[in-house]
Structure formats: structure tokens, C-alpha cells
Amino acid sequence: MGVTSGTRLRGTRLRLPTTVAGRRRAVRGVMAACVLALLPVTWVHAAGTPRVRTARDVPEAPVAMVFGAGLWGGKPSPYLAHRLDTAAGLYRAGKVRVLLVTGDNSRDDYDEPDAMRAYLTKRGVPDDRIVSDFAGFDTWDSCARAKRVFGVDRAVLVSQDFHIRRAVALCGAAGIDAYGVGAGENHDVTWLAGGAREVLAAGKAALDAVVRPSPAFLGPHEPGVERALETAGR
């Protein structure tokens, strides 16, 4: 039986083309596969890059969306803190009137939006100008819920520069007139890992943009953004 199994394994080994024409076809096939794999990344950059701005020159919008980026000991991770600092700066500069913090609260001991709210209020952003989305489980869910649940039509998005293009592209696909501001970071190991992850995430992003699935949790309309904007207008 061992001899038979070994024979079968040898028979199923990958065989490279032996002719010049066969090798050329194999090379073309590999090149075509690489091009297809890079199409989502190309789409993300084409859709997102023209709408990425600095905090100084981004157009004004009613709302800034801040995407979650993890907690450390119940408090915003350094990357999330930088996003929140950038959003607070936009608020103080009058670029936006309301902040929508969107993140994960899928379990009792993990609450990104409340941690984000606490961080912002300690830095001078009024509590009634902050709206929490507790079901922003990924970028598409955050964008789709901002539009379909919170009624956001125009927004400035805040994230790290390696993620902001995908966020802009997805919010655009969700129907939001969005510009993005990237929170500045040192290009350390975490930044490089985030950039590498974006290559893989672009495939899902392109699929989400085409299929436009419902978020993991949709729920009814929430008037939090509308009320906060009314308060801001007083």
C-alpha cells in the first residue's frame, strides 16, 4: 500500500511545461493572475486618492467619521488616539460640526465607541457633538450604517493614511460624498503591517462595493446625527 500511495503522489506532482510555447503560456497565465489580483488595489487607489486631503485643505462637511482601531486596556490604541486627535482638530478648526465614532461593541467587555467618546470629551469636544455607532464591525459596515442608519450624506473620514483610501472608496460606494484625512504616523512595523493588510482587504472592498451587502447589524434609523447637527446650529 505504501508503494501504491507513493506512486500516486508522484503522479500528481506539478509538471512544468517542457516546450517553449508551453512555458510562454504559463508565464502569460501567471501575469494575468497577478493583474487580476491587483485590480482591487488599483480600484481603491483610483477611487480614494483624489479625495484624500490634509486637515488644513479638506472641504468642510457636517460630519467627521472616525473609524475604530482597537483598544489597549479599555483605552484607545495609539493609532486610534491619533485618529481621534485629528478629528478633534477638525472640530476645533470648524471643518466639521459633529463627530460620528464608529467601532466594535460586539461583546460586553469591549466598547470602542464609548472609549472614543471619553477620549474626545477629555480633549474638549462637547459630548452632544459626538454620536456613537456601536456596530461598525468593519469599514463597509461603518460606511453603510452611516448612510442607511444615521443618514449621513457628506462626511470627512479620519483614519491612518494606509487605510483612508479604502474608507473613502467604500463610503463613496455606500452613497456618501466623502473626503478623507489621514492621521500621520511613523512608518514603523505596525504601519507596514497595516499597509500589507490593505492589499488583501482591497479584494473584499471591491466585492462589497459591487454587491453592497447589508451590514452585519442594520437596525432602524437613528436620529443621533440629525439631533447633534441641530444642537450645533443653535
TrEMBL record:
Domain DUF218 residues, every copy: 63-178
Pfam families the record matches: DUF218
InterPro entries: Cell_Envelope_Assoc, DUF218
Source taxon at top rank: Bacteria
Protein name: Vancomycin high temperature exclusion protein
